[in-house]
Amino acid sequence: MCLAIPARVIELEDEDIAVVAIEGVKKKISTALLEEVAVGDYVLIHVGYALHKLSPEEAARTLELMAEAGVLHEELAELREGAA
Amino acid sequence: MKYIDEFRDPGLARKLAESIAAEAAPDRHYYLMEFCGGHTHAIFRYGVQDLMPENVSFVHGPGCPVCVLPVRRLDDAVELAERHGVILCTYGDMMRVPGTKQRSLIRAKADGADVRMVYSTVDALKVARENPEREVVFFAIGFETTTPPTAVAILQAEAEGLTNFSVFCNHVLTPAAIGHVLGSPDPRDLEKVRIDGFLGPSHVSAVIGSKPYEAGAELYRKPVVIAGFEPLDVMQSVLMLIRQINEGRYEVENQYTRVVTREGNRKAQALVDKVMERRDAFEWRGLGTVPDSALKIRDCYAAFDAEKRFEVSEKASREVKSCECPAILRGAKKPTDCKLFGTVCTPENPMGSCMVSSEGACAAYWSYGRFREPDKSKEAAA
After folding, report:
1. DSSP letter string over B298-366?
2. Hey, are the CB atoms on A78 and B92 less than 8 Å from each other?
């Protein structure tokens, strides 16, 4: 539950809502906790909220590591469930 | 067992292991508490303990949100769903935690209570919008990473005039728990728990910053190094802690500068502060009553506070007898010291919270099979 997953912002919707993409999963998330978010930014997602901005390199590394540790699958499944 | 070639950069891991072995003074032992369950997970998954010299040990901390919630609060949530007939929304991790008499939310649901697993507070708000005739309660648990989303949900509900939405708030604070572990150890543990320094949590610190740890580090004279959650981050942080201990320093250092700043995420902090304030005290499983360690909803948002809107009965809550979760959460015992571990208590049929959550120490021991291999595999580091 404490894990946060990196994702790329692909679209900005209404106030504080963005669409992010991770490994082929698209998901609406809240950006209410960040000051400024732009399309193309990488953000750390935790329970449906962007917590922090990340560099693209850090995002790629983190995703790779999560896949390696076997937790990426679990997190993506959670995201998909919540995507309804 | 996982070996060094699984590291992102095995060469760097080897070098760090060598530096740690070279700098750890042979005439003493280093006990380092990793507060966060995410770190416990990384340490086990990558066999980081095996890369440490004999005199450097990890003590697993209470940083698992599901694990530290006292049975009483879980029983209250079950009662909200069963007696008050609310739609109770909760994060998935909470569903299988056994309460008094093994009563979990998933059992309550099987018996007809309306308990719904949500991924986000955004989903809980949606449930409230779609069911205007029902009361919808979000069962909020977690450390400082999950608190801002709860605050945002309350503000959103207020803005929309959603009067059927409320929050059962159980958010807890990391620096208070660290202070308690150091300052008020359980009298039963005095001989058992020794901590020389802390690995501070990654994402919690992204929100609160490194500053809130400074007072505790100074007061208790224990170093804190905020560590990223990669195994290499953990190893580098261990080296930083050993250096501080050797030099008699007790500072808050930040290894995870890629994400964590001293000030943290100020916008998130301001949102939380707007909606919540500190409780005088809160009960933690394992740690007991800890002053100033949790948040409650401010009076001006009382309309969204499930504790004010619903009465829960005074009842006797009980831990499962002989479950060692409380002592494990204090770092006083290891999962293998519990007679239920791996026998009647497994992830499929958990008796205690430390086995339910993947961040729990028991689940980590179970998943990575370390309890079957008590001997250290030194050759991995050679």
Report:
1. -GGGGGGBHHHHS--------PPTT--HHHHHTTSS-GGG-TTBTTTB-SSS-SSHHHHSTTSHHHHHH
2. yes
Into how many domains does chain A fold? 1
B27 burial level (CB within 10 Å; 0-12, 13-18, 19+): exposed
Q: What is the pTM of this model?
A: 0.90
Task: State the CATH architecture for B4-63+174-254.
Answer: 3-Layer(aba) Sandwich (3.40)
**Which residue among A35, A55, A78 places its CB closest to the CB of B119?**
A78
Residues of A in contact with B207 (CB under 8 A): 51
Options 3.40.50.11740, 1.10.10.10, 3.30.300.30, 1.20.1050.90; which CATH number does B67-172+264-309 get?
A: 3.40.50.11740
DSSP B371: G
Across the A:B interface, residue pairs with CB atoms under 8 Å apart total 107
In A, which residues are within 8 Å of B230 by CB distance?
A: 61, 65
Interface residue A56 vs chain B (CB under 8 A): no
pLDDT tens for chain B, residues 1 to 382: 345 666 777 888 899 999 999 999 999 999 999 999 889 988 988 889 999 999 999 998 898 999 999 999 999 999 999 999 899 999 998 999 999 988 999 999 999 999 999 999 999 999 999 999 999 999 999 999 999 999 999 999 999 999 999 999 999 999 999 998 888 777 777 667 789 999 999 999 999 999 999 999 999 999 999 999 888 899 999 999 999 999 999 999 999 998 899 999 999 999 999 999 999 999 998 888 999 999 999 999 999 999 999 988 777 788 888 889 888 888 888 899 999 998 889 988 888 889 988 788 999 888 886 655 444 443 444 3
Nearest-CB residue to A48 (from B122, B230, B258): B122
The CATH number that applies at residue A39 is: 2.30.30.140
Domain definitions of chain B by residue range? 4-63+174-254, 67-172+264-309
> Which of B156, B259, B266, B353 would best serve as a mutation to test chain A binding (most A beta carbons within 10 A)?
B259
